[in-house]
Design brief:
- The protein is largely without helices or strands.
- It is 15% helix and 8% strand.
- It has a three-stranded antiparallel sheet with strand order 1-3-2, with no helix packed on it.
- β2 and β3 form a beta hairpin.
- The N and C termini lie far apart (68 Å).
- This is Biotrophy-associated secreted protein 2.
């Protein structure tokens, strides 16, 4: 008797903030989109900045997804905020956008 098992393909992708939103990192204006980088909840439209467990970076997340894909939950306050904001400003300059802080 032959037994057939369905095969399942699993894609593993590293979670990382989207650079397109670099201009909204650290400005506290609540304009950052979901998957954009953040240093605190105040950056995110969703009011949820979650730490990524593997990188220690903040990523804006939907509240309902705050613990998915290796995120550690809302309320992240980046202890390296100054360095993250400086890197975001450099990314904005590289992209040619105006940084509004």
């Amino acid at each position: 008797m032959l037994t057939h098992y369905p095969s399942v393909a699993v894609s593993v992708m590293a979670l990382a903030p989207n650079n397109a939103g670099a201009k909204d990192v650290g400005n506290g204006q609540g304009q950052q989109f979901t998957t954009g980088g953040c240093v605190s909840d105040a950056d995110c439209r969703s009011t949820c900045c979650a730490e990524i467990s593997t990188s220690g970076l903040g990523i804006c997340s939907a509240v309902g997804a705050q613990l998915q894909n290796g995120k550690l939950g809302c309320g992240f306050n980046d202890p390296n905020a100054a360095a993250v904001i400086a890197a975001a400003k450099a990314q904005v300059a590289k992209q040619g956008f105006k940084f509004m802080a």
